[in-house]
Design a protein that fits this description.
The chain is an all-alpha fold and about 200 residues long. It has two domains: about 100 residues; about 80 residues. The protein is built from 14 helices and no strands. α3 runs antiparallel to α4, α5 crosses α6 and α6 runs parallel beside α8. The longest helix has 14 residues. It is elongated.
Length: about 200
Amino acid sequence: MSDKDIQNLIEKEDTDNLLEALDDKTLDIELVKKIYYPFRDHKEIVGQVAMNLSLRTSVYDRDQEYSETMVELLRDLAVNEKDMGARWAVAKNPHTPQDVLVNLAKDEVNLVRALVATNPTTPSNILEKFFSDEKIVRDGLSGNPSTPIKILKILANDADKMVRIRLAENSGAPKEVLEELSQDKDSNVAKAAQVNLEAKT
């Protein structure tokens, strides 16, 4: 969709077609921005912009789709208190700046904090504080490669097997933790740890 097409839809306030346009993760990010600002109070548009930014980024390739416009939009979405879904998308995005993550770490919604806990960009001192948070938040630490090793060592003995599986798959888990998990009583945990160990050698 061209710049002119988007401009026409904005002028007509044709939100249905704008939502459809935002459904395309290959839509130029400058056009995403162009749609966003006039409709910052439109819950569906805000949610769809947040979803668009999520779809175009990857936790495995942190440089993918990085741009100043991306960061600008993430910053603005983070303060959109009306839409928890927007903050949710910002909390897990690898391009979200650290100062924004520090603010979202205090969010009253535990799911937002849980997603900040999974974000590899979150500062380690914040990740340490999350260890004393609710279980849903603390559990997010197990799969985060930036989680301090001393916390990963404690999580290796967590009663929840899903926590141990995420830890076994964590690229940041140290060899000693993976060796311990490779002997886990749960076969799925043990297998995931063995695969991770092999990938490290």
